[in-house]
Specification:
about 10% strand; seven-stranded parallel beta sheet; 2 domains; Rossmann fold; about 45% helix
Length: about 325
């Protein structure tokens, strides 16, 4: 029995589908229902996600709930208690921050109102949801909580509020794991790689059937993954009897694919981490003058290595490269 909060599209939808494929009953919650979309310009709904869960072999249940409104969160879990009597898996994938993220601006130029709204949507909702979900798990001394984030390091993510949100949910998993230790409940954070979400496919003007046509627009897209890849990662964690050895950790879809042996829907096993590091090395070792995107890529990797004692040498090399080319 699982709840995926934020199941309308993207990683949440993929996770719900793959939990369904594992035979789970999956409550799919969020704000976008048929006739009342919550995200302008997006057609996806919770009902469609729930139908896909059922088509995969599970039981999908669509529930409209605004996870920023505590009374609606309480009502959601009261319904789950009444109808199911238990909760085995909670996935926190509520986001809604894309239109609020001001990329390319330093923090002192950001709209603070937008930034705090992003934190409201992407962090406060996770806290409220976990707060009211966990009592169902504590009663049985069993359960799995999955916080969905972006990136498998604690490095800076290029925008202050975005960085706070994505690192905050990593810390939530760590803190919850500590508090829940005595109750045999596991909390982890997980990141997908370059996600072929509905919005990303639309951005490139492709569909899942011809997504490779977009690689010529962005060569990094070659190592992208469907939302079901991270979905299979979550399903594998939920089925792992030894999942508690991962308690409090930050995990990635690509590393879990190697550990558990699953593949993406197209049979591939993308590994965003090694792919990205290889691309960074190619830029740094190239004799050609870097362009703005090359500098962005190296800067991103530098932020991933900065303050990581295991990556000090790489960080020094990248810092020196950036000093020469910026």
């Amino acid at each position: 029995m699982a709840l995926v909060a934020g199941a309308t599209r993207g990683a949440g939808r993929g996770i719900a589908r793959m939990l369904g494929a594992a035979g789970a009953t999956v409550y799919c919650s969020g704000r976008s229902v048929r006739g009342h979309p919550a995200t302008p310009g997006r057609p996806e709904t919770l009902e469609t996600t729930a139908e896909w869960v059922t088509e995969e072999g599970g039981v999908g249940v669509a529930v409209r709930a605004d996870h920023s409104v505590e009374s609606e969160v309480e009502a959601l879990f009261a319904r789950i208690r009444e109808e199911q009597g238990r909760l085995d898996v909670l996935v926190n994938d509520i986001w809604g921050g894309d239109p609020l993220t001001e990329w390319g601006s330093p923090f002192w130029e950001l709209d603070s109102g937008q930034g705090f709204e992003l934190l409201e949507r992407a962090v406060r909702t996770h806290i409220l949801t976990s707060r009211h979900a966990v009592p169902l798990m504590v009663e049985r001394n069993a359960g799995l909580i999955v916080e969905v984030t972006d990136g498998d390091t604690l490095g800076y993510r290029g925008n202050l509020f975005y960085d706070l949100a994505k690192n905050a949910v990593i810390r939530l998993a760590y803190a919850m794991a500590s508090d829940l230790h005595a109750h045999e409940i596991t909390a982890v954070a997980i990141t997908p790689g370059f996600l072929r979400s509905e919005a990303v496919l639309d951005h490139f003007g492709v569909s899942e059937s011809n997504w490779r046509d977009a690689i010529q627009q962005d060569p990094y897209f070659a190592e992208s993954e469907t939302p079901c890849f991270v979905g299979r990662a979550v399903a594998a964690l939920a089925a792992d009897p030894d999942v508690r050895r991962k308690n409090g950790r930050l995990l990635s879809s690509w590393d879990l694919a190697r550990e558990y042996g699953f593949r993406d829907l197209d049979g591939q096993r993308p590994h965003w981490g090694s792919f990205f590091r290889r691309k960074v090395s190619e830029i740094v070792e190239s004799q050609e003058a870097p362009d703005d995107f090359d500098r962005f890529v190296v800067r991103t990797r530098f932020h991933q290595t900065d303050h990581d004692v295991a990556l000090l040498d790489e960080g020094r090399r990248l810092r020196a490269w950036l000093a020469r080319h910026e």
